[in-house]
Amino acid sequence: MFCWLSRLYRGLSRPTRRTTQLIWGSFSRSLVLSSQRRIPELSSFVARTNTCGELRSSHLGQEVTLCGWIQYRRQNIFLVLRDFHGLVQVIIPQDESAASVKKILCEAPMESVVQVSGTVISRPPGQENPKMPTGEIEIKVKTAKLLNSCKKLPFEIKDFVKKTEALRLRYRYLDLRGVQMQYNLRLRSQMVMKMREYLCNLHGFVDIETPTLFKRTPGGAKEFVIPSREPGKFYSLPQSPQQFKQLLMVGGLDRYFQVARCYRDEGSRPDRQPEFTQIDIEMSFVEQTGIQSLTEGLLQYSWPSDRDPVVVPFPSMTFAEALASYGTDKPDTRFGMKIVDISDMFRNTEVGFLQDALSKPQGTIKAICIPEGEKYLKRKDIESIRKFAADHFNQEVLPIFLKTNNNWNSPVAKFIMEKQGLGLIRLLETQEEDVVLLTAGEHKKACSLLGKLRLECADLLEARGVALRDPALFSFLWVVDFPLFFPKEENPEELETAHHPFTAPHPSDIHHLYTEPQKVRSQHYDLVLNGSEIGGGSIRIHDAELQHYILATVLKEDVKLLSHLLQALDYGAPPHGGIAIDYHRALSRVPCAVQ
Ligand code: ASP
């Protein structure tokens, strides 16, 4: 049955009589080895012999041809030529016989693109430039060609020259000539290459393209619609290849991946782009731990080698814990200032709004401690924190300052009994000069507010010179055990999915599904890096009846829109699950300073 498969692989590797399985194994191994050995040939097929950045003393005496942009010219004698690989100094010939070469190189405006041919010579003693990788040599030019002249530019092509974002975007093609941008794009390309290598060659995944003209998917973000030729009919751009990858599992392609373009019409929310790229993965016969280990291995394998290595396994935290301690489902665990529940300590409080909060169901009192807040937070910061809480959460926030001898300074100081004060100090590990921010109210609301203030205060402390978050640290975290459904914001009586409607319920909560669906946890996992969600996935529902029930009865969606998927699940769909990693976001968290 698999003879076509063995033919395919035999065609690609050395002919062999072994079984398909062995061929596959040797094929993947030979690819790995050769790709590890290979040093890219940067000047094949083009009109140069070398790149500007690669020449060293070992090239002395060689005749070379270089192509690049004119970066500097000094005294009509020295010219610095640049390409993506680096800079090299070129000596403009001064003798009469080379007058035409001199004319080209002296008259071409900066950033003109030229081709020069000449000999690699060593710089005169004392004139070496240790700051330039090519600083020991220079090029004695014999011939030169102006390939294209450059008009006056809107900004200089030098990374240190400040320019506005708008200008950079308008002239993106010029911005790309800068060292940092070149580095970023090449780093991204290398990471994707390594991801492909890891998935295809080491783990037998198949890279499959899926359509981008599709139909509406219920739930999730708004979709872009594309008019068709037929009046009144539209295509929808997929938010992700979710349905396709599940259909591929039904089709027996049991290890799929794709560097997939996704489209979500999310307005101008920060950190969101209307189109972005995911490493989209799906596997059959897998459980949550399998997907997590695969993802950890993938990131570890493809992580830039000049950064601190990725340490696996990543720690894991439940959604409930993340909300209670960090007020968010994407905690930045690089620093403390965790939210602490202090309700028990204030059961007998005389402070009106605290009493009020505790008398309500779900009512709590929560606090965070800002280390040395008194030193770093100004009065106006505290005022704007309180205003933010009132404007956005309709919540009151009380600042409490811890003075020497465990004395408090706050509008409620006189109501804090000694026992409560000592309890606060113990629970929040408060020290002199710290500031406690306290709020009271419903658990989720109080936590979300303090989660926001925690980040806000971290930014303020850092802006004032406190080293809180190590920029070189990669703090990966799995957030697991999400609820399967959330109450809709506009109408809390109705439910919406926390991830997407194909996510399977947690096996230990399935009994609640038909009676109290809001209590069901899911098999959904998110990957968080330094406080940003960079990936998410789930184990899927592979039972058509269960999928139908969730769509129709719980989510009240029009099941006709997904009849194709429901039907497919009925034709022997294997258990399956997957993940999507937003590598743009992941990479934008990697400090990409050129080293
Ligand atoms: N399709 C999902 C997303 O784009 C990821 C997944 O569940 O695999 O968020």
Key words describing this protein structure:
five-stranded mixed beta barrel; alpha+beta; globular; 595 residues; disordered N terminus; binds aspartic acid; eight-stranded mixed β-sheet
Overall description:
This protein is α+β, with helices and mostly antiparallel strands. It has 17 helices and 22 strands. Strands 6-9-10-22-21-20-17-11 form an 8-stranded mixed β-sheet, sandwiched between helices. β1 (63-74) and β2 form a beta hairpin. The longest helix is centred in the N-terminal third of the chain and has 24 residues, at 179-202. The radius of gyration is 31 Å and the shape is globular. Bound molecules: aspartic acid.
The major β-sheet equals: 8 strands, mixed
DSSP summary, beta strand count: 22
Q: Provide the residue-averaged pLDDT.
A: 89
Low-confidence stretches: 1-35
Total helices: the number is 17
Strand order of the biggest β-sheet: 6-9-10-22-21-20-17-11
Shape: globular
Helix content: 25-40%
Terminal-residue CA separation: 52 Å
What molecules are bound to this protein? aspartic acid
Secondary structure category: alpha+beta
Q: Which value, in Å, is the CA radius of gyration?
A: 31 Å
- Strand proportion, as a percent range, falls in 15-25%
Summarize the structure.
The chain has 595 residues and is an alpha+beta fold.
